[in-house]
Amino acid sequence: MRIITYNVNGIRSAMKKGFADWLRSDPADIICLQEIKANAEDVPVADINATGYEVFSYSAQKKGYSGVAILTKLKPKNVICGNGLQQSDAEGRVIRADFGDITLINAYFPSGTSGEDRQAYKYQWLDEFFTYLDEVRKSRPKMIICGDYNICHKAIDIHDPVRNKNYTGFLPEERAWMDKLFGNGYVDTFRHFNQEPHQYSWWSAFGGARANNKGWRIDYINVTEPLKAKLKHAEIMPHIVHSDHCPVFLELKK
DNA sequence: ATGGTGGCGCGGCCA
Question: What is the average pLDDT across A154-162?
Answer without folding.
Answer: 98
